[in-house]
Amino acid sequence: MSAAALAGTAETEGSGVSGSTAPGAPTQVVVKHLKVLLYSDDAKVRESLRVALGTRPDPALPELSIEEFATAPALIARMDASLKGLRVDLVVLDGEAVPAGGMGLARQLKDEIYHCPPLLVVTGRAQDGWLATWARADAVVSHPIDPVRLSDVAVGLLRPRVA
């Protein structure tokens, strides 16, 4: 018998969630980490987003687990996997990515995924915030990346995911 089974808990593979498996016991879900997906065709932008978010932007939240994507098809495939139980808590999209921009992807994800996780779009300029609203993004920040602002916005989107 596994240690998890002996302890009465199990972790769903890749989900970052564990819960009680004892017969008749109420299910207690504990989020071990929050899954954040970063999308940009530019490796430097992905790096700056990852560094700005860090691994623990708020001590009241679980640690972040970050996956990076350079292409839209790879991100869409990962989002499809989230429909099969792989946890996604936040998606950060580079609005300036090419050939598939983050704003178009945001709109597509909101249209195609029921209960889509929160989407944060990074725009090229603050004046492009209205485009992120059109794309149905849950939040928007602009380049250049301000680590404090990005973390604050991300934490605001992540808090309800663990409540």
Fold topology:
Layout: H1 3-7, E1 9-11, E2 17-20, E3 30-31, E4 33-39, H2 43-53, E5 63-69, H3 72-82, E6 90-94, H4 102-112, E7 119-123, H5 129-134, E8 139-142, H6 147-162
Helix pairs in contact: 2-6
Kindly describe this structure.
This protein is 37% helix and 23% strand. It is of the alpha/beta class and 163 residues long. The protein has two domains: 1-31, no CATH class; 33-162, Rossmann fold, CATH 3.40.50. The strands form two sheets. It has a five-stranded parallel beta sheet with strand order 5-4-6-7-8, sandwiched between helices. A hairpin with a 5-residue loop joins β1 and β2. The radius of gyration is 17 Å and the shape is globular.
| CATH class wording of the largest domain | Alpha Beta
H/E element string? HEEEEHEHEHEHEH
Strand order of the largest sheet: 5-4-6-7-8
Write the CATH architecture name of the largest domain. 3-Layer(aba) Sandwich
Measured by DSSP, the beta-strand proportion falls in 15-25%
Class derived from helix and strand content: alpha/beta
